[in-house]
Input
Amino acid sequence: MEMKNIIFKSLGTLLIAGSLSSCGTEFLKTEMSNGVDVNTALNSVANVGNALNGTYYQFFRYYFAGNYGTVIGDLASDIVYWNGQTSHQDDIYQFTYQSTGISSSYIWEYGYKVVDNSARVIKASKSLQESVSGEDLQELNIYTAEAYALRAYSNFVMANVFCHQVKVDGKDFSNDLGLVVVDEPIEAFAEVKRSTVGETYSAILSDIKNAISIFEANGDRGSLFYFNLAAAYGLAARINLYMENYDEANSYAQKAIDESGIETLTYTPEGYRALYNYGSSNTESMFALAITTQDNWSANSCGTLFSTYDYSPSPWLLSKLGENDVRNAIMIFADNTTPEVPEFGGGKFACFGMGNPAYATNYLINAPEMFLIQAESNLRKASPDLDAAKKALLVVAKRNLDITKVEDLPAAKEDLLSFLRDESARELFQEGHRLFDIRRWGVKGNAYAFNAPNIDFTFKDVDLSNVIFPIPEDEINAGFGVVQTPDWAAGRPQ
Output
């Protein structure tokens, strides 16, 4: 596969695409344009808004958050099944990926487009601070906060894909190779080098804290489809959980819940299915992509991947859903499905309200995850609080209507942790967390399900904590300083 760009060769010459004449107030509502030159033309609040909108567009694309960067963590895990009838991202599913792989190469390319363009928006915004005031200054500050949050999110995704987990059940891998940290825009042909995992996470944490501080002082746009304060709190909770900063993770998760006002969840089959009707139908979400009937990825969408491109929930996952679990409401299969060759209807990407899975929105930061973060943080911190953990876990576990009170949950800590891991599989299916959760938990896992409808895996009870996807070969060969992760192939399950 020959990539169109070698990212550290092309940075600095990018044009921000998808910019709008309305200063970014109607995200992705106009045709693509040549945009504005990021090196010379970010000289007004309007142009910064347009540039930020183009950055959202790169983030939104199926190369990154719109598909590849979101689903990779589920495809390489125990909760997804591939029936073998097509060959989309099957190298991820089968753990046969190479340094020339399409999915991971595009995650790298478009992740860095978001990161570099965000850095340019931040730099331009800082240079304009003294020349604007009033509503223009508030608008500029909100753009800056969103750029910080986009950079944090994108770096976090790439750190999961291309780097070792920062912590694995208490063991620290901060000194392993991380990402190329981009504080200042990187000009074309500049020599770069990879920072450590620890330095990468420090940069990610700094960015999300900056976003939060600015949002708290200036407000946000009040839209599900732009980064906002609740979503920034939610991302901070996720980042701190991965870093095993459990008190901070718990605190940020609570702030996300409070800011969003989502203090309870949906507990009926009809209500749960309605979350995935279309667009802003998910009343439990804090941040989503602006996928619409006009702006979507059609055959390259997540909805197509989980329908006509032959991915579905694994038999193991389906076995973990109780008979009275409301999440069964989205586990609907196509008319041509068979037990041996399942054909799924899309699940969270079914777009039930429109009937076309290609129009489904990716919900990226959601309230159920916050309650699970609180439960895990209270279980795994130095002095566990089982009562607090059970209280948070019950909010999600009540999706199974046979569970109504904390006494229905396991009593002992280890049993509760085991239940939480299964509950995360049930609740976060199709949200892209599973492989990365298994890695950081440091537990043995299964992968590459086959032989449906039986529960069977090619890789059984294997250590997945060292699964690392390789830096794209084109980037390494370009010679701008990015080195390959040593022994990345040895981490694949055998």
In short: The beta strands are 15-16, 36-37, 80-82, 167-168, 171-172, 285-288, 311-313, 363-366, 444-449, 457-463. The two ends are 25 Å apart (CA to CA). Confidence is low (pLDDT under 50) at residues 13-34.
